[in-house]
Structures are given as C-alpha cells and as structure tokens.
Amino acid sequence: MIEPDPAAAGEWPRPLPVVLAPARDEALSSWLARHAAFYGLGITSMRRHCVPDAVSLPGLDRKLTPDQEARLAHLFRRDRVAIRDMMHMHSGWAVDRLVARAVDHHCEQCARLLVAEGHAEAVPRSWFHTWRISCERCGSPVVSASKAPWTVLPDLFPHLWSAALKGERLLSGAVDRASPAAFDLPTTMLRVLMISSASDAIPEHGGRTLDAVVPGFNATLDRHGIVIPFTSLIDVPLPVRTALLAGLVFALEEANVAIPAIWNATAGMHRTHLGFVLTDLAVGLRPRNHNISDVGRVLAARFAAYGRTAVSHSMPGT
Ligand SMILES: [Zn+2]
Fold this sequence. Notes:
This protein is mostly helical. It is built from 14 helices and 2 strands; from the N terminus they run ααααααβαβααααααα. The protein has a two-stranded antiparallel sheet. The relative contact order is 0.10. Residues 107, 109-110, 135, 137-138, 140 line the site of zinc ion.
C-alpha cells in the first residue's frame, strides 16, 4: 500500500525559504536553534513548527521517529540521510552513559573558527562527548560548559595528560567502530572505576575505586569538594576527567593487577555491585557470592588483551 504523503497533501508547513548550511559536525539541535535565531523565533516556537510532537530540541539529537525525520527533511529541503547524519551516531549504552543531554564543553579556538566560517553559535556533536579532554577538531584542551563551582579549577592531574589522551582516543575509536561489542570492555572498565570505594576519609561521597589505580584521586575530590553523582559517568568534571581517562588506560593495560586492587578497595554492597558489573561481561561465569577469583581471572585476561591492542591502536598515526 502506498503511504499518503503529508507534504503533498498540504498537511505540513511549506519548506523554509532560506536554509542555513550546517557547520562541520553540527548537532541537529544546534542547526535548528540557529534557524530559530535566523527567523527571529524562540526555540519553543521553532520546535513546535518543525517537530510539534517533540519534547525538546536536544532530544532530537538522539531519537527521531520516521515521521519527524521526513518532516524535517521536507521543511529544510534536505534528504533524510543528511538529517540523520546530524544526530548522535552512537547507540544504546554509549549514548545513555557517555553523550551528555546538554553541551558538555566547548573549544575556544574552534568557536572562533566557527564564527569565521559564518557559523556563529553552532555546536558540534563532539561538544556533547563526555570522554573528551581535548578538542576533536583542533586538539586544544576543552573548556567545561558546567556551572558547578569546581569548573573554574584547572586540570588537577596534568601529569596524566598524555596517558589520558590515550584513553580519549581509545573511547573515540570504540565509538567510531560503531559496534556495541567494541564498547563493552572500555565502558565496563569505566563503570568499574566509578564504583564507590566506601572510603572512610570521605564517607559522604564514598570515594571511587579509581583511587586504587590513580592514587590520590579520592583525596583530590575531597580537597576540592568535588561531587560526582553515582548514577552517571557523564558528570565526571573536567578538572578530574584526566585521571579517569588515564586510569582507564592503566586498568586495561594492567587488568590483572588493577582488578584485584579495585576489588580490595570495595566493601559490602559496593563489592556486590562490582561483582555484578564484572559478571555482566561474563555470561555463564557468574560467580557464587560474587567471588572475584574465577571470573576475575578470566575478565582480567580479557581486559588486558583488549587494553594492549586498543591502547596501541589508539596511538597517533596507527
Ligand atoms: Zn578546537
């Protein structure tokens, strides 16, 4: 059966007379917001005009129904593939855990470049990526978009910068391969490193197991009053993100040492949580009482093999 064409039937508004060229890697929500500014409309009015059944513009970067996609392609005189290409391309876990729902950071140098290119206020998709410490386009250190008080702090682990860049490339490489399986090991290790270590030193925050791999991490959080919500990897603030990315590389490369150290840094319900996270990866190997021994050895070997390959492949020019 031939589907009715709402554009031909006059059910949709006419296409916009002027359509702005998207900036390089521009997010769909950013492109729509720039059209709102160009036509002197508020964001809400623009959203209602373009996608009346959408809740928010940023939400469109993650999910578009076929009808929404077709309507946007019609209004903006683009093909549907061009519209889809402006969305976050990752899927499932990666989008939920590592792509922020609002802009995570920006790059001052690229913001100036965008103005020079005639795309002032454009927001690249990479500015939503919470695993970045350097700009995807120019390599400059990025600037946090957060309003949290610790945002003004400098990088608190500058000595780990080059190791952190390896971690950043490792995660970007996993995303670019667009395979959920390729994401399993590095993102699981990120989850492992963010489990509470139930440190007595900062009981109200709990501390993180990352401290077993990057000693001093918990003390740094405590000293600067930095709070990282337990439910999310997205909110690891830039001043300490270097430690997480470097810790990811260390833990993957030396998983046979790191996993027991992380295990020993946990207690009670947090150790149970760690057991669940690790055994997520080991279907059929779920241990009784969440004992690390057998599953830990198997997973440590998998992490280490992955880490050696992924880290070496993430080096520049390889
Ligand atoms: Zn840049």
